[in-house]
Structure formats: structure tokens, C-alpha cells
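Re: your question about Tc1-like transposase DDE domain-containing protein

S., sorry for the slow reply, the queue was backed up all week. Below is exactly what I fed in.
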Amino acid sequence: MTQHTSRLCKSYFTKKESDGVLHQMTWPPQSPDLNQIELVWDELDRRVKEKQPTSAQHMWELLLDCWKSIPSEAG
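Result:
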């Protein structure tokens, strides 16, 4: 069910669905497809784990390096 729960929104979506304009999709509320930062965190996690940090300081350095290396248009 959509997050838009006001009567006005529900009425609008119901009308558009019955007109065949909209089709409500079943989608998990926490889907990474809708939360792009989760894809970035996953990429950062994989890159840091590849380097196997040896200390907290080393991990921070790797995190910074990996963060800087992720292209802004990634995803």
C-alpha cells in the first residue's frame, strides 16, 4: 500500500487505477532500489573489505580513499 494515506490521495490513486492510468506495484518499503544510498554503502563496504584494514586508523584511511573513488554518477 502506498505511503500516501490521506483521503484525497487515496481517492486520486483509486480513480487513476480504475481509469487504467496507474498500476499499483507491490514493492518492499525499504527496497534499496528506492533508497540509492544503500547501494553506495554496499559499494563502500565491498571496497574496504577487499583491502582488509589492519587498524581503526587504516580503516578510516581506506574509507576516505574508497569514498573519493566512487563516481558521483554511480548506481
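The chain has two domains: 1-27, 31-75. The helical segments are 7-18, 36-51, 56-69.

Happy to talk it through on Thursday.
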